[in-house]
Amino acid sequence: MKILHVNTSDTHGGAARAAYRLHRALLNKNIDSKMLVQKKASDDHTVIAPTSKFEKGINLLRPTLDNLPLHQYKNRSQSLFSPAWLPFSQIPKKIAQINPDIVHLHWIAGAMMSIQDLAKIDKPIVWSLHDMWAFTGGEHIDEGQQHYLGRCGNSKVLKSNKDKDLSRTGWQRKQQVYAQIEDMTIVGLSDWMHQAAKSSSLLKYRNHIQLPNPIDTTAFAPFDKVEARRLFNLPIDKKIILFGAMNATSDPNKGFQHIFSALQAFSLENTELVIFGSRQPNIPLSFKQPVHYLGQLHDDVSLRVLYGAADVMVVPSLQENLSNAIMESLTCGTPVVAFDIGGNSDMIEHQKNGYLAQPFDTDDLAKGIEWLLNTPNYQQLCNNARDKVLTHFDSQVVAKRYIALYKEILAQ
C-alpha cells in the first residue's frame, strides 16, 4: 500500500506539521508513505520536492501570480483567500510518476495546484480538511458567514457585496471539477469541521469520516518545570501564562487582542506572560504582567520545553479546527484555556483538563485563566490533559485508524 501525502510544505505551518506527523506515523507502521511538497524545509528523504533552481524559482513566484485576482478587492479582510487559478502546475504529473495507491491531500494552497488540477489525479483521493477552503469559493476561514451552504458569493472575507464575486466563481469552478472526481473521501479533523463539510453544498454528497491529526507522545511529553524555565531564562517563582501561534500577534484570528483584554480584566499577582511565534511588536501593548517575546520556535524539542515551563496555555483563537497548540500543550501536561468554538471541545474537557470560555467573552477567558492557576486540583488537571491525548490522539492510535480507512478504500 503506497500512500502519497500532498501538502504545500512539509514542516512550515500548522497543516504541514500535522500532515508530516501523519506521514511519519504511517512510516513507523511500515506503510510505504511519501510526501510531495512545493517547498521543503526538512532533510527527510521521504519528502519529495523540486530540486532544480528554475522550478524552485517558479514556485516562489506562483503565490504572487495566483493572488492577482485579489487586487480588485482593496478592502478585503486579513483572512486568507486562495483563488487557485494559476495553471501549469507540475503536481499532477509528479503524482502520476510516483504512482501511489492513494493520494492524501492536505493543505494545497499557496498556488501549489489549481482547482482544475484535482481532476487530473487518477487515483482515489483522501482529503484532510485543515481549514474550510475545500468547500468554499476560496476562503480558508469564512468568518462565520456560512455561505458554503449555498453557492458562496457576497464574500465577507473579500468585503464584497456582489453575488458573482471571486468567491462565487471559485465555488463554480470547484463544482465543475468535483463532478469529474469519482473517488474522494473527506476527512474532518474535528467534529466541527466534519459537520461543516457534510453540510456544504460542494461536498455533502461525498463520503465523510472524522479522524484527528496524530501526535507523537514521546516527542511531546511533560518536562521538568524548573529546568524548563532555566533553559528559557524565565522566573522560577512566578505563574507563567503561555500564548503563541504562527504570527501570534499579527494574525487577527489568533486572538492576541482577546488575551490582552482578558489579562486587563483582573489583576493576577505573581504572573508573567510568555509569547512565542512573534517578536515584540513595534508598538507593544501595555500588559499588566511582564511579557517575554520569544519569536519563532522551529523544533519540537523547544516547544516541548516551553510547554513544560508554563502553568497554563491560552488559545483565544476566533476560529480553530483541531489546534496543534492545544494538542501539544495537553500532551505535555499543561492545561489549556480557549473559547468553546470549532474543534476545541474535541480536546479540552471543561474544568477537567482545561477551561472552555464562552465564545469571545474575555471576562470568561480571564475567569478560566484565574481558575486554572488557583485550582487546588491543578496536578490532576495536568494528568488528565496528557491522558486525553494518549487515549484519543497518540500517533500509534490514530495511524491504525487511517490505515483501516486506506484499506477500506482500496478494497472497494
In CATH, the topology of the largest domain is named: Rossmann fold
Question: What distance separates the N and C termini?
Answer: 14 Å
- The CATH class of the largest domain is Alpha Beta
Query: Strand pairing plus helix content: what structural class?
Result: alpha/beta
Strand content: 15-25%
How many DSSP H or I helices? Answer: 13
Stretches where pLDDT falls below 50 for ≥5 residues? none
Instruction: State the order of secondary-structure elements, H for helix, E for strand.
Output: EHEEHHEEHEHEHEHEEHEHEHEHHH
Summarize the structure.
By secondary structure, the protein is α/β, with parallel strands linked by helices. It has helices at residues 14-28, 53-66, 91-98, 166-178, 191-199, 225-231, 256-264, 300-309, 324-331, 344-347, 362-374, 378-392, 395-411; strands at 2-9, 32-39, 47-48, 102-105, 125-129, 184-188, 207-210, 239-244, 271-276, 291-295, 312-315, 336-339, 354-357. The longest helix has 17 residues, at 395-411.
